[in-house]
Amino acid sequence: THNLPPGLEYLNQLDQIIIHQQVELLEAILGTETSSKYEIKNHLGQRVYFAVEENGCFDRKLCSPLRSFTIRIADNTGREVIRVIRPLRCNSCCFPCFLQQLEVQSPPGTIAGYVVQNWDPFLPKFTIQNQSKEDVLKIIGPYATCGCFDDVDFEVKALNEMTTIGKISKYWSGFVNNVFTNTANFGIQVPVDLDVRIKAVMIGTCFLIDLMFFENSLDGL
């Protein structure tokens, strides 16, 4: 474990990660968009990391959910251990040369891996890459992400897209929560022996999926 990026040692033990968005009171009451904050927990509900999105009010108002952002992820001591960077890019199958990309750093300043959106006319598809931009895993979402009172699963697959090794799930958390606060609750299930750097990239993938498919939705209602 001494070769792991500092702060990621705990991910080495996890095969399930929960991401819960915290909603500010002003945003819940007035619908005013504020910078997103997240708690990242283990399967027991214990907080492992805390994440804060950084961007400008201009980006949130005019570019959401396409906005660029930097999400800083800190451990329980306040030390930043992961940084997620999303540039402003297109979110349309009409522009396949300028689709979504995400860079994940751990420690900050050192590349851990990338998330790259793949063009497909029907399904949400992404490729997880390591720090050398070598393809590692595929992520394939459902044709419809509305949920309809149920969880929405994005399957984590081997590169041949035939073998499923895990999933990223958007949890449906009830009518009141979705309509009035629209919070994000995600779960990541991956093999426990997956490289911790790739696990960090999977956390970044949750943030990208949230903004692309659920930011302005009612999550199935």
From TrEMBL:
Keywords: Calcium, Lipoprotein, Palmitate. The keyword Calcium applies. Transmembrane segments: none annotated. Its cofactor is Ca(2+). GO terms for molecular function: phospholipid scramblase activity. The keyword Calcium applies. One of its GO terms (cellular component) is plasma membrane. Belongs to the phospholipid scramblase family. May mediate accelerated ATP-independent bidirectional transbilayer migration of phospholipids upon binding calcium ions that results in a loss of phospholipid asymmetry in the plasma membrane. This is Phospholipid scramblase. It comes from Chaetorhynchus papuensis.
